[in-house]
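Example 4.3 (complexes with small molecules)
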Amino acid sequence: MIRSLLAVGALVCGIGAVLAQSDPIATRKATMKKVGEANAEVTKINKGEAPFDLVKVQAALTAMQGAAKAMPALFPDNSKTGGDTAALPKVWETKADFDARWEKLGKEAAVAAAAIKDEATFKVAYADMGKNCGGCHESYRKKQQ
Ligand code: HEC
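Answer. The structure with heme C bound is encoded below.
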């Protein structure tokens, strides 16, 4: 029983890895889309357009940490074009800087997640988070119409 459960687990993980490899563009876009949606909710809270919601804030920070871990591997050399990607060639030209930005986002999201307990701590800990998003998009993503 245990052995077959392990086998199923290995299979499921294997499929995930194969999917990421076979369609890294779709996977990275879907990953970013999730982060974007979660962050949009938190931006509303930050602007005072929605009430503070610790669950939403923590969910967004979790999504950012997940993306920070997953994203660097989703830009293999054969995914520079196609699949309606908005990634600029610079991603592959300065991949070390690109990857370092993910690491920074992951670290800052983890620090914020630990610090945020209520609205007051949110205001302080979340203030600069968005700069990670905009800063990277500025250099590495095609301008959106
Ligand atoms: C280290 C660089 C980097 C960071 C940090 C980053 N992004 Fe992105 N993001 C990208 C790149 C590159 C793309 C384009 C991916 C593609 O089209 O292949 C993208 C695409 C997106 C998209 C469009 C997804 C779609 O539907 O195609 C959204 C939304 C987004 N990012 C939101 C965010 C938010 C919110 C943050 C901050 C919490 C963030 N990103 C942080 C590099 C980054």
